[in-house]
């Protein structure tokens, strides 16, 4: 990229199917000249159209080797893009606000894997873009694998046409039981007070209703019922269908003292999902995924419509921060 940024290659990248030769997934960009943080922020504003073009063709862009060493600087880098922030309302992951529009990524224990999902695909209002930032490089593991959602749709449609047809017709229902407070031992441990950003049940019900979510209050928490909600969407900007859901994540990962993952997601008519197809979908996601090992200072920008992401288990320390944009 002219003068300031240059694309580099990694052995972990894959070509983007049907995108022509030379389009890698993800794109990786590094500085072509020496930069301080102020100049880096200015260059992000200047080169935003080029970065967005890379994002559109590749689905994800990694900014590597730039002078971003703190959460505050990451916040400044996100702001330089000029995207509107999306409040984290309705999401499941336990998170903590760090500074400005920056939060911790999922705080569940390091031995737990987080399955593939689109961020907040289980609610109607979801981010269009995600930023991740590596503040502390993992000692071992801890990658954030990513996979192109149109590739998953095409492979599932080819292998399980009847299942995908029913999925497109019926959609999905997501069910989750929340306590009042956050449970950091669970990958879906966000309590209802954090989920709806209130301690008032009536306000929580109003905010849930705006999402199309039903609440059933229990003695020690609340059951949330979301759906039916589409599991496949049409990406108008790219002219293709995409696999846009948290089906595998819910079915294989929404497990804690309150939740049974098999009951966490069903077809939109309430019928159970076929376990063997879900397990095979998980294998396909892994086969098609790319996992770039984190380096301190890395920023990964993800198009949330085009790409699913996950998290591998790791040996601490590791600290990945995140920011969500409309």
UniProtKB/TrEMBL annotation:
Q: Any idea where the TauD/TfdA-like domain is?
A: 32-321
Pfam families linked: TauD
Q: What are the UniProt keywords, alphabetically? A: Oxidoreductase
> What's an example of a GO molecular-function annotation for this chain?
oxidoreductase activity
InterPro entries with a match to the protein in the record: AlphaKG_dependent_hydroxylases, TauD-like_sf, TauD/TfdA-like
Signal peptide positions are none
Domain of life, per the record?
Eukaryota
Q: Which PANTHER family match?
A: GAMMA-BUTYROBETAINE HYDROXYLASE-RELATED, TAUD_TFDA-LIKE DOMAIN-CONTAINING PROTEIN
Which protein are we looking at?
Answer: Clavaminate synthase-like protein
Gene source species: Acorus gramineus
Upper lineage is: Eukaryota, Viridiplantae, Streptophyta, Embryophyta, Tracheophyta
